[in-house]
Design brief:
alpha/beta; three-stranded antiparallel sheet; 46% helix
Length: 319
């Protein structure tokens, strides 16, 4: 059964999840392996990126794939994407991928949804938290013999596990884990045909929205410490402006618009997509890129919001 091991923990059996680390750099292997051990996982021998296709084709199912593609070229990542996709589709493994900014579009095109966690330049706490959640979310922390364990015992173990993870995260924070820098991604900002900015029912143009975005960014020149981070609204504004411009926005470009660390932006993109506000479209001319746009519901909500705001006499730059 998955090649997992079972431990007798206080009168019930506790299944220890299996995890496979795929990475080239020794530092990445050590970092991912340490996070998996701390989260209660059982490590299989690590695999180099070039060997991953063969290894995954021969591997029994595992609970977690922990992958670092930092520094890898796009061709190597393409091969890995195919191997991981086939492996995941044949089982139910969770996948955590540590990546560079240059890989965001390439990875997001294939790996998106609740099974995947994408981390761009994560700090130690982010990495451990994502690994721990992936392990826990795959049912690995508390799979007990239901006949032997009462509900109270299972809840007690869950509380203990949550407390243990919280304690590790707190210690990591006290030790001063580095804060990811603000996004400095390089990408195509807006692609596609741009006609004259259109005016919707709200009486708002793309130029108006761009002015709002510029003013929001100018606040950071006067206040420090990320006081005004609001990635959801910043991304909604950027996609609404692109809609009015008849432009297209790549995933990496939207991460820039979010004005937060790339991992945070990717997390919000997933959340907004799951909420039905963003829609994803593959680039028909480049399989390594995907575009995002507002869903019809989100477009209508933005139009309604600006209509109400203008109706109340609020000037566009102040919105």
């Amino acid at each position: 059964m998955r090649g997992t091991s079972w431990n007798d923990a206080g009168g019930g059996f506790h299944r220890q999840p299996t995890a496979l680390v795929i990475a080239d750099a020794v530092a990445d292997i050590d970092e991912l392996s340490a996070a998996i051990r701390d989260a209660g996982g059982r490590l299989l021998p690590a695999v180099q990126l070039a060997e991953a296709t063969t290894r995954l084709a021969q591997s029994a199912p595992v609970d977690l794939l922990a992958i670092s593609i930092s520094g890898a070229n796009h061709d190597v990542v393409d091969a890995l994407i195919g191997a991981v996709s086939r492996f995941v589709h044949s089982g139910d493994a969770a996948v955590v991928i540590k990546l560079d900014a240059m890989h965001i579009d390439q990875i997001y095109t294939e790996f998106w949804g609740p099974r995947y966690t994408l981390l761009c330049r994560p700090d130690e706490a982010e990495l451990f938290g994502s690994i721990a959640l992936a392990v826990a979310g795959n049912g690995a922390l508390l799979l007990n013999d239901a006949g032997r364990d009462s509900e109270a015992v299972r809840l007690q173990r869950l509380n203990a596990e949550v407390a243990r993870i919280a304690d590790i995260l707190a210690r990591l924070a006290r030790n001063g884990t580095r804060t990811p820098p603000r996004a400095t991604l390089i990408g195509d900002v807006h692609l596609g045909y741009r006609g004259e900015p259109s005016i919707e029912g709200a009486g708002v143009s793309a130029a108006d929205i761009r002015q709002i975005i510029r003013l929001r960014r100018q606040r950071d020149h006067f206040f420090v410490g990320g006081l005004f981070e609001d990635p959801a609204w910043d991304m909604l504004l950027d996609l609404y402006a692109a809609h009015l411009e008849r432009g297209r926005v790549s995933v990496s470009s939207l991460c820039i618009a979010a004005a937060v660390a790339p991992t945070t932006a990717l997390r919000w993109i997933s959340r907004m997509t799951d909420a039905g506000l963003f829609e994803r479209e593959a680039d028909p001319f480049d399989r390594r890129r995907a575009f995002l746009e507002l869903s019809p519901t989100a477009r209508q909500a933005m139009t309604d919001y600006f209509t109400v705001a203008k109706g109340n006499g609020v000037g566009i730059p102040a919105i």
